[in-house]
Write a structure and sequence with these properties.
The complex is a heterodimer. By secondary structure, chain A is mainly α. Chain A is built from eight helices and one strand. The N and C termini of chain A lie far apart (60 Å). The model of chain A has no long low-confidence stretch (mean pLDDT 89). Chain B is an alpha/beta fold. Chain B contains 32 helices and 44 strands. In chain B, the strands form 13 sheets. A seven-stranded mixed sheet of chain B has the order 7-6-18-17-16-8-9, sandwiched between helices. In chain B, strands 22-27-24-26-25-30 form a six-stranded mixed beta barrel. Classes of the chains: A mainly alpha, B alpha/beta. The interface between A and B is large, with 46 and 41 residues.
Chain lengths: 178, 1052
């Protein structure tokens, strides 16, 4: 008898576990695969739609590394302050937060959206030099109030482009893995 | 040369016949069954036997481990790792995340100066390279200079000022953190009382010298200089011979004949890196090749590179030098001294030197003839710890005398360009200790030296420290000397501080910080300024930066014309200095010939009076190793796992003894022996070292630290309790010793013998005569046909040449590679199992008899074969051939079958048995972000510095130009002081490597396998009458189909 009760409880627990897993999965609480569509909350609700879309600020104005370095780099606060030292913070708590961080010399901890594993080396400069538009990989970023991952960033996705003859790109493993 | 000593003549009988021509270890030479077993086994350890012989248990354990790691990975896939991006608040202008910055700077290793370039990543220094515009070391560096970047992140560094509270007897102490303010005040108070002394290492920084002068003047302090890597005898000898105590400049590049009498100038003496560079430039085969003759008792790195090598006892050094002098001056009538009756009388006792030394007349006369034929173009050198026997001063005088007689003064030895900063004197440390004991010195400030560890115990320095009222220690940790100091005023690493350097007279370089101090430390310059300010003394600057800058403005800016500069403002000049790093105001002077000093022949009286104790049956020699030297930097794990260039042993010191003596005493490798000398005894394992003189044993200093930190403490044994103090000098060599055998054994982590290549054409050497007749002498070429389709390389095809004639085995490349490629250290336990991770290794071969063999060095790295045997066996295609000829390792695809390592005939693949890279903070900050950190269970190997190739191509594209030859330099190539390694594009016919690839001296390693390596070796040429590999006792060259270098039928 005890055995049966134990079996039943165990069965329910397993079923419950499976339900919970799919529940979390479908609600994007956990993800498997390539994190496409991943759009975490940021400590300061920065909007690309406003800056890049409405005000048409060039991507490379803030992402200074894109043309010269492997990393496009998330801008340091002094770049924000180029403009924001002259912009009113009245009624804009996010901007108060930004200025406070700058004057307190406390860096903002942004959530990383596009994550490549450590064993992959991707170079922004090489792709920008070839004339790739940011949107080709990052999607219509100028329409995103919250940035989400547009492409799968899987190896197959990389290779797809590298294989195109007009791109004249290498598909040897050592191009990205070393 | 085999039979130069009477005692050696029975040599070969004790060993089995048919020895191999080239051999790695004595076991192999003898055909020891144990070596056979190891060679057949190929890999030293099976994973299934980890720490246990019961394979059943171990297998389960292994599977369990694998299971656990599988579970971990699959769990990792489900959860997205949430990572943060934390940008700067104010990004420094010069930093672009992802791009390295380079800063010209300087580094002093004890008393050895280097001009360096520090590579930083996002503000972290991660790599040290040589500064190509520095006239001293150039782009090359020593292993130690390369490794000292890791010391920045040493977790055992002192993090803040400390005060030690001693009890009455000064036996135990409690250490408390202290503030700089309180400490400065107390120190200044005590200094005002007078009777103070400042003990430092050689001060090579001109601005620090100036500061010390004003500090000493302000408080009436006596300044004493002493170095662990002593050139004390040289200085004293110079003073007696020429009137000025200054280490002169040596020009090995101008010398055609070099005779070293226990002077390890390629390994540890004065400035090995600069000397290696000079020596190699005289070794090039397009001109007249130099000849190196070495007389020594142990086998040093210099001896291993000798064309002709004689084994002598430490007590015979003076006989060698004076014997040669007798031949040249009395018999051949050379020089002005030939008509000097007094000189002749002093030389007379050495008329039969060759006989006394047991050197055959022919060999002796060859050396004499070579010297006689190279008047003004020869160089006699002697010195360093291993030469410091009781008659060290007389020896130096004798060497100076012989150099003067041969007209080398002003030609190969120049007083201009002297090492004017090297001032360490044993006599003054002995005097200082005496003064403290007598109470004449009551306060002591110490910087840059650790005498409690690195001076002989007989000095009783620690007892003196106990008597002093105040001891202030300025070091990077509370080490052996720091333990006796009331105040620890911690100094940061040199990449954290401002400073400068005068490497040799007139060659200035700047030391600029590349990192804000990680801890609450400050430079000695700052400390002295603080102590002066607090004590109410005038200081000319606010901080060390200002002080150094002012010093350059006042003293060096006016000298800019001598360096060929003409800046109008100091600001521009300063920018130039910071960018270039070097200000060479003595270029023309240094290279002029002439102006030799006149030898004061009355100094020869010292030689006449020298009393040599040769009564002892067994003489002990203490010597420094290339990796650890005097024991500073011992806590850098790279240097502990650095295979000694000669013995190839790491993580230990040992008693070095000759094979014959070991046999006589029934000593086996690793057996613990008791060594007794100077009334003390220690127990150490034995290493049987071919090439060591009979009647001599050697022990390495630099080990057995107790206050260095978690890596170094307890590694090996300290041996300086066996050294002596005689009058005003330390005696490290020629100490009468007794050795007794114990039954214990300590296995030695010897890296040679792992990765054996099974007797094929591996290393090729020829005599100069043979080379002149045929440039490809002794290279056996094979007629090959391929069953493979050849790779087609339409773009670049990367390749490398390694010139064995220039390589001296210094192993700087090993550390450069380790630093560049995030290579972990594994510890003694795993080196014993053959699991060291170095991507490049230097194989050391012996040729000839074990008593007096020739040595050869061969760097071996991944050959990047066109027909790579590893690529064909990987079941998951984790190792791939790229379109540019490199053999790439795809870590994330590797599942760890290790088939590739099995199939690699060069044994260059390394497997991560554990997560070796799981390192203590802040050590991880030394990692290079361009190179993937490999995880457990993954195979790795040399990538040809793939990340540097990518970066080089990227840079060229960015600048819209093709890649030029020399744009891309591998880490090993960059670090090589002798330019033995050349890397480049084989598809570019104008590249240096493409040209070298086609020279006749170039050969493929194991050509008969048709692997078509992208690395080619160039045979070694020995400037001797014969090479020992040809007299190996079996076969004529080529007889067995493998050329002169085959190890023969040993494995059949």
């Amino acid at each position: 008898m005890a055995k049966k009760v134990f079996g039943a409880i165990f069965g329910i627990a397993v079923l419950g576990g499976i339900y919970l897993f799919f529940h979390l999965l479908t609600n994007n609480k956990i993800t498997i695969g390539y994190n496409k569509g991943y759009a975490p909350d940021q400590p300061i609700p920065y909007s690309h739609q406003l800056h890049a879309g409405q005000y048409k600020i060039d991507c490379k104005f803030c992402h200074v590394g894109a043309e010269v370095s492997r990393h496009a780099s998330v801008p340091s606060l002094n770049i924000c302050m180029n403009c924001h030292q002259n912009i009113s913070t009245v009624g804009k708590p996010a901007l108060v937060q930004l200025q406070k961080a700058y004057f307190d010399n406390k860096p903002v901890e942004w959530a990383k959206v596009h994550l490549l594993p450590d064993h992959v080396k991707f170079n922004h400069a090489a792709h920008v030099r070839k004339g790739k538009q940011c949107q080709e990989c990052h999607g219509a970023i100028e329409t995103m109030p919250v940035v989400s991952q547009h492409s799968s960033l899987s190896m197959g996705w990389c290779i797809n482009c590298h294989r195109q003859p007009e791109n004249n790109a290498s598909v040897s493993c050592g191009t990205c893995h070393y | 040369m085999d039979n130069q000593f009477d005692s050696n003549q029975q040599s070969d009988q004790s060993f089995t016949s048919q020895p191999p021509k080239f051999w790695l270890s004595l076991e192999q030479w003898r055909g020891d069954p144990e070596f056979q077993k190891l060679a057949e086994q190929e890999f030293l350890s099976s994973p299934l036997k980890e720490g246990d012989d019961d394979s059943g248990w171990a297998r389960r354990e292994f599977l369990k481990l694998m299971g656990a790691s599988l579970a971990l990975t699959s769990f990792g896939c489900v959860r997205r790792p949430a990572q943060k991006i934390i940008p700067y608040v104010n990004r420094p202008e010069e930093i672009v995340p992802g791009l390295p910055n380079y800063y010209a700077s300087s580094f002093v290793d004890g008393n050895i100066p280097y001009g360096i370039v520090v590579t930083t990543r996002e503000g972290r220094p991660i790599k040290i390279e040589g500064n190509p515009s520095h006239p001293g070391n150039g782009q090359g560096l020593s292993a130690r200079a390369l490794a000292h970047v890791l010391a920045v992140y040493d977790p055992d560094r002192a993090t803040q000022p400390q005060k030690k509270l001693f009890n009455e007897k000064k036996t135990n102490s409690e250490t408390v953190s202290y503030s700089w303010e309180k400490m400065d005040k107390e120190i200044a108070e005590q200094l005002k009382k007078g009777n103070a002394a400042l003990l430092t290492s050689s001060v090579l920084s001109p601005s620090l010298r100036a500061m010390i002068a004003s500090f000493c003047q302000a408080y009436g302090i006596e300044h004493v200089i002493w170095d662990g890597m002593s050139v004390s005898a040289n200085l004293a000898g110079q003073e007696k011979s020429y009137g000025k105590a200054e280490v002169p400049g040596y020009r090995f590049d101008r010398a055609r004949v070099i005779v070293s009498v226990e002077g390890d100038f390629l390994g540890t003496y004065i400035h090995p890196t600069e000397f290696q560079k000079q020596f190699a430039s005289g070794r090039k085969l397009d001109g007249e090749m130099n000849k190196l003759v070495v007389f020594e008792s142990l086998l040093s790195l210099t001896g291993a590179n000798a064309d002709t090598r004689f084994r002598i006892r430490p007590s015979q050094k003076l006989t060698v030098v004076m014997g040669l002098a007798h031949e040249l001056i009395v018999k051949k009538g050379m020089s002005r001294f030939a008509s000097d009756g007094a000189v002749k009388a002093i030389l007379e006792p050495y008329a039969n030197a060759a006989k006394d030394l047991g050197v055959s007349a022919t060999d002796w006369n060859d050396v004499v003839a070579a010297l006689a034929g190279a008047k003004g173009k020869s160089l006699i050198v002697s010195g360093g710890i291993s030469s410091m026997s009781s008659e060290a001063l007389a020896l130096q005088v004798a060497v100076n005398f012989l150099n003067s007689a041969l007209d080398n003064e002003g030609s190969t030895i120049v007083s201009r360009g002297s090492y004017n900063g090297m001032k360490g004197s044993d006599a003054s440390l002995i005097e200082l200790t005496q003064k403290i004991h007598e109470g004449r010195i009551k306060s002591l400030v110490i910087w840059g030296v650790n005498p409690v560890y690195s001076a002989p115990d007989a000095l009783r320095f620690s007892e003196a420290l106990k008597k002093a009222e105040m001891v202030v220690y300025t070091g990077d940790r509370s080490d052996e000397t720091g333990a006796f100091a009331g105040y620890l005023a911690p100094e940061g690493h040199s990449v954290e501080n401002w400073g400068d350097l005068e490497a040799t007279e007139g060659v200035f370089s700047i030391q600029q910080p590349t990192l804000r101090p990680l801890h609450n430390t400050r430079s000695f310059l700052d400390s002295m300024m603080a102590w002066m300010k607090v004590g109410g003394k005038a200081v000319s600057a606010e901080n060390s930066y200002e002080y150094v800058r002012n010093f350059w403005k006042q003293n060096l800016f006016p000298k800019q014309r001598e360096a060929g500069l003409s800046y109008l403002s100091f600001e521009d000049f300063w920018v130039y200095v910071l960018q270039n790093g070097v200000l060479d105001t003595a270029g023309n002077e240094r290279n002029a010939i002439g102006g030799g000093r006149s030898f004061n022949s009355s100094a020869l009286q010292l030689v006449k009076d020298a009393k040599i104790s040769n009564a002892a049956d067994l003489e002990l020699v203490l010597y420094p190793t290339v990796g650890l030297m005097d024991g500073s930097l011992a806590n850098v794990s790279w240097l502990q796992e650095f295979p000694d260039p000669v013995t190839k042993i790491c993580w230990d010191n040992y008693l070095v003894i000759s094979p014959l003596m070991a046999e006589k005493m029934k000593l086996r490798e690793g057996q613990v022996a008791k060594v007794k000398a100077s009334g003390n005894e220690i127990e150490l394992p034995v290493h049987i070292q071919p090439g060591v003189a009979e009647g001599v044993v050697g022990l390495a200093i630099g080990f057995g630290r107790t206050g260095a930190g978690k890596v170094a403490n307890g590694v090996g044994k300290r041996v300086l309790q066996l050294a002596k103090v005689e009058g005003n000098q330390f005696v490290f060599a020629g100490l009468p010793a007794e050795v007794t055998v114990t039954s214990n054994r300590i296995p030695l982590a010897n890296t040679q013998g792992h990765h054996s290549m099974e007797g094929r054409q591996i290393i090729v050497e020829a005599t100069l005569e043979q080379y002149k007749k045929r440039a490809d002498a002794n290279i056996h070429r094979h007629k090959m046909f391929s069953i493979w389709d050849e790779h087609k390389y339409t773009g670049h095809k990367w390749g490398m040449t390694v010139d064995l004639n220039l390589c001296n085995g210094c192993s700087a490349c090993v550390i450069a590679c380790q630093s560049e490629n995030n290579i972990p250290t594994v510890g003694k336990k795993y080196v014993l199992q053959g699991r060291e991770m170095h991507w490049i290794r230097i194989d050391r071969y012996y040729a000839g008899s074990p008593e007096a063999p020739d040595s050869l060095h061969q760097p071996v790295l991944c050959m990047h074969c066109d027909n790579a045997p590893c690529e064909t066996v990987c079941p998951v295609i984790a190792t791939m051939h790229s379109e540019e000829g490199t053999n790439d390792m795809i870590y994330n695809r590797c599942v760890g079958t290790r088939y590739c390592a099995n199939n690699c005939p060069y044994k260059v693949r390394r497997f991560n048995w554990f997560d070796y890279t799981d390192m203590r903070a802040p050590l991880h900050m030394a990692l290079n972000p361009e190179v993937t950190v490999r995880a457990r269970g993954v195979m790795e190997k040399c990538t040809f510095c793939k990340h540097k190739i990518v970066a080089g191509k990227e840079k060229a594209k960015q600048e819209a130009r093709p890649v030029k030859d020399g744009d891309i330099k591998t880490a090993c190539q960059q670090a090589c002081p002798t330019h033995a390694i050349v890397f480049g594009d084989l598809n570019d016919p104008q590249s240096e490597v493409a040209k070298l690839f086609k020279t006749q001296r170039a050969y493929d390693l194991l050509e008969e396998l048709n692997n078509k390596p992208a690395v080619r070796y160039m045979s070694k040429v020995r400037n001797a009458k014969a090479i020992k590999s040809e007299r190996g006792g079996h076969g004529t060259p080529g007889k067995d189909g493998h050329g002169a270098s085959a190890e023969g039928g040993h494995h059949s």
